[in-house]
Specification:
The protein is mostly helical and about 260 residues long. The protein has 12 helices and no strands.
């Protein structure tokens, strides 16, 4: 970590890199998110070498943004780490204190209670939903919101109940489309996707991961269609809808065995 901090200091020096010197906390936000997603993808891929590389890249961006705040005399990296350490100790009284918990579920309940107390101490109105960042992918945020609401009993009893809600929202979306009301279509489509995310949650599936897999399958099949057409000396623009549908079904059948 020390060598990275030295590199960042050199890049930000008066005679350093012009691009790095121009950066602000707001301008590098997107890079932090990109590096976090790349690390997540590396972990999912199971290649430790890739994880090592992407973890290093993410650390670099975190140290870079810490440097920007240090230069503005807002806080030091050591201050941020110390604050995090204090928070972890405070929220694990069963490890660093006298509290006793029976299992992981009780740990989560204790964590939420401590967070609520911290919010009250700051004069904030506590919520079981917490403070999930709005910048989370919307489907993931919908999943997490439903998960947190369920902890206090606000949830459907079983997956079948949510399936009926999905059908209800689908019918309302169809009515909005039929009426041609753009604002209503926008809202009803959102309600439909939110309900679908909760149905996914009740089935024990993360909807963000399920959708990502679906997109990957679509991309793989689409590229295979392109390859087959190219081998035949054709392209998609020259095909009829019927030909494309037939080719799609053929690729799908081959890939699913």
């Amino acid at each position: 970590m020390c060598i990275l901090r030295e590199i960042i200091a050199r890049l930000r020096a008066p005679d350093g890199c012009p691009w790095d010197r121009e950066q602000t906390p707001d301008s590098v936000r997107k890079y932090i998110l990109e590096e976090a997603y790349e690390l997540s993808e590396a972990i999912e891929g199971g290649d430790a070498g890739e994880v090592e590389e992407e973890l290093g890249d993410l650390f670099f961006m975190l140290l870079f943004i810490a440097r920007l705040y240090e230069e503005a005399a807002a806080f030091r990296l050591e201050d941020a780490l110390e604050r995090s350490a204090e928070k972890m100790i405070r929220r694990h009284p069963h490890i660093f204190g006298e509290a006793v918990v029976a299992d992981a579920q009780e740990v989560v309940a204790q964590w939420q209670a401590i967070k609520a107390r911290e919010s009250r101490d700051r004069g904030e109105r506590a919520s079981a939903l917490g403070n999930l960042p709005k910048s989370l992918p919307a489907l993931q945020r919908a999943f997490r919101v439903g998960e947190r609401a369920s902890r206090v009993g606000f949830d459907w009893r079983q997956a079948g109940d949510v399936r009926e809600k999905v059908r209800e929202e689908e019918a309302e979306l169809a009515e909005a489309v039929k009426a041609g009301d753009a604002a209503a279509i926008h809202d009803e489509l959102g309600d439909y996707l939110f309900a679908a995310a909760q149905y996914s949650r009740k089935l024990g599936i993360n909807p963000e991961e399920a959708l990502r897999s679906a997109v990957d399958r679509f991309c793989g099949r689409f590229r295979e269609m392109e390859a087959r057409l190219q081998d035949a000396g054709r392209d998609m623009a020259s095909c009829t809808h019927e030909e494309l549908d037939s080719l799609w079904e053929a690729v799908k059948a081959d890939q699913t065995g």
